[in-house]
Amino acid sequence: MFREFIQYYKPHKKVFIQDLMAAFLVAVIDLVYPVVTRNMLNVYIPNQMLNALLTSTAVLLILYLVKMGMNYFMQYYGHLVGVGMQADMRRDVFRHLQKLPYSFFDEHKTGSIMSRIINDLMDVSELAHHGPEDLFISAIMLIGSFAYLCTINVLLTVLVFAFLPFLIWFSMKKRIKMSKAFTETRVQVAEVNATLENSISGVRVSKAFDNGVYEVEKFQDSNRKFVTARSHAYKAMAEFSSGTTFIIDLLNVVVLVLGGLFTFQGIISLGDFVAYMLFISMFLNPIRKLISFVEQLQQGMTGFKRFHELIHAEPEHDSEKGTDLENVKGKIQFENVSFAYDQESEDGAVLNDINITIEPGKTVALVGPSGGGKTTLCHLVPRFYELTGGRILLDGVDVKDVSFSSLRRNIGIVQQDVFLFTGTIKENIAYGRLDATDEEIIEAAKRANIHDYVTTLPEGYDTYIGERGVKLSGGQKQRISIARVFLKNPQILILDEATSALDNATEVMIQNALEELAHGRTSMIVAHRLSTIKNADEIIVLTREGVQERGTHEELMEKKGIYFGLYQAQFKNLTDAVGNKVMG
């Protein structure tokens, strides 16, 4: 995992090396000050060497100007390295998300995924910049300090540096506790984000049911868990920080006492003692940097670990053959198809041994009770899920041998729950084919019976529709989704209860657009309102037991089986509803 982290430095190698060179110069310049101070106290001042004193002062000023420039470089360009790496990681993980199967998003909350991409990578960015820089400066300062202090007095230096192993041991011991605490904090931050995203997305529902108090309590529950996790992390940090600070303070006392004794006994001069104290003060700065680095390392690597888990989630796998479909006719064959969402559960099978053939250009409707696998069967054609048994052929080719891009490019889907992207009407229609011209977009809108409505808007096709199309009615959103399928112009069409949520007047308008869309294409229709599929070439009744009935509307009505019962029940409900309305 660490090697993978290092790989992200490669595109920014030049600036990163320059940043380390700047850090090296800053560390060297910091080491010069105690040396000059020692010379001033031991040589220049006692011997009244004014020129040497002034020259040393001028050199220090020049060096500090250089240090200012290096610090500017480190703060600006060094941070750009971290931001660049963060952007690269976000780019890679977002690309990877596009390759993950439906099942991944079934099992992971949107807010949690967002937290990994945004929050976690912020700390990774800080580690990427400050980590190597602080480590490099600290190493230079420690090695330089140790070497120079040995020239003053080896015994005193060895005694002082003897405290380092205790500091390192304590830091490593607390590091494990901090790692666990920060990991738990990440999990709870993701939960807070997931709850927040879910509540904001569903705010209209919560208002409709007057459940604002419940949503607040639900959020507070996640918030409390976050506070608890964060308190454990801060407790670990407090133990780490207070313990290391005590060791450093103790080190200051030891230097003061031992240095004073060595000076009192004439082993070192007063100038050496002052220089020693200055060096120790500077020696403590890299130790503090190292302590800060350990904290930063925990947060950054915990974030990168979660990023690593996400980017290594199993993607959809294209076939090695990767066949591209050409001149698609649209014949679909389901041969002994079986599927289960939970393959480990004995009762998890949704489809068992399904055999259906749909001829090119024909329309097949799937009806039956909820949970019978109608939508699932449709989702298996574009390989949103992988079969657990059997195979699906498209024009005689197993869909597993077809590239995802080629397969899905030839399939258009209109669902009941329409998803529109935040943006304009034009942008959402153009999503069907991103290189479409304005004329093609308008033609698709006309065929979907939405053009006349769009022309009444002040901004026309550039009208902003709000998040998920909130400014549009259900029928308008549905017609925009139909328009983008017209624009895509696929040979295979899947309509998943595309009109079930609409009123009767709107349904008629949408139904006309759908019939126009389905003309000449192989179509699979999942229908709740049976009146909309009476003209289908074949109607298949699908239940948990498999295909129970199949035939035209007239043939199934004559059988007086499941379909007959469903149709009669719907017709009776419709008659009762109309009767009650008339009587009311």
Characterization of this structure:
The chain is α/β, with parallel strands linked by helices and 584 residues long. It has 20 helices and 10 strands. The chain has helices spanning 2-7, 13-44, 50-99, 102-107, 110-117, 119-152, 154-161, 164-201, 203-208, 212-264, 270-311, 374-380, 404-409, 425-430, 438-447, 451-455, 474-488, 504-518, 553-559, 562-583; strands at 332-340, 349-358, 363-367, 389-394, 397-398, 411-415, 492-496, 522-526, 538-543, 546-551. The strands form 2 sheets. Strands 6-7-8-3-9-10 form a 6-stranded mixed β-sheet, sandwiched between helices. The protein has a 4-stranded antiparallel β-sheet with strand order 2-1-4-5, covered by helices on one side. Helix 8 packs parallel to helix 11.
Short structural summary:
64% of the residues lie in helices and 10% in strands.
State the helix count.
20
Contiguous runs where pLDDT drops below 50 for at least 5 residues: 574-584
Largest sheet: number of strands, sense, barrel closure: 6 strands, mixed
C-alpha termini separation: 71 Å
Radius of gyration: 35 Å
Provide the residue-averaged pLDDT: 81
Q: How do the helices and strands follow one another from N- to C-terminus?
A: HHHHHHHHHHHEEEHEEHEHHHHEHEEEHH
> Could you estimate the helical fraction of the residues in percent?
55-70%
Strand content: 5-15%
Instruction: Name the strands of the widest sheet in spatial order.
Output: 6-7-8-3-9-10
Structural class: alpha/beta
By DSSP, the count of extended strands is: 10
Instruction: Describe the global form.
Output: elongated
